[in-house]
């Protein structure tokens, strides 16, 4: 395996992309919620009380698309809306217990799938992956 930065960049991008696609596929085995709705629930679990516009910027989608996703989640009882204490015109979104339970089930299901895959590796291989993940994480945290 090449240690050239260009080759490592290609490997990292390809591997993380494949992992992301596989985890999305696994999520379809756990819930019937479409990926955009799952993404909104996950973002609201990490950072509650966001506006639809903030979510649209974070997800890099058009505000109209996010409004549609938000309305679907509201109608299904996954999120609630309340006025901002700082600016009553803003509508802040928050998970309901149903939304929180759903995203937690998704997280646990995807983690379980990955845990099963990692369990097939020997301890040395798992240590290597742990070290690589730590290094990738530190690269992502560097501006």
TrEMBL record:
GO molecular function (one): DNA-binding transcription factor activity
Domain HTH marR-type span(s) in chain numbering:
5-141
According to the record, the segments passing through the membrane are none
* The entry's keywords: DNA-binding, Transcription, Transcription regulation
Q: Sorted alphabetically, which Pfam families does this protein's record hold?
A: MarR
Identify this protein by name: HTH marR-type domain-containing protein
Q: Which organism is it from?
A: Paraburkholderia acidicola
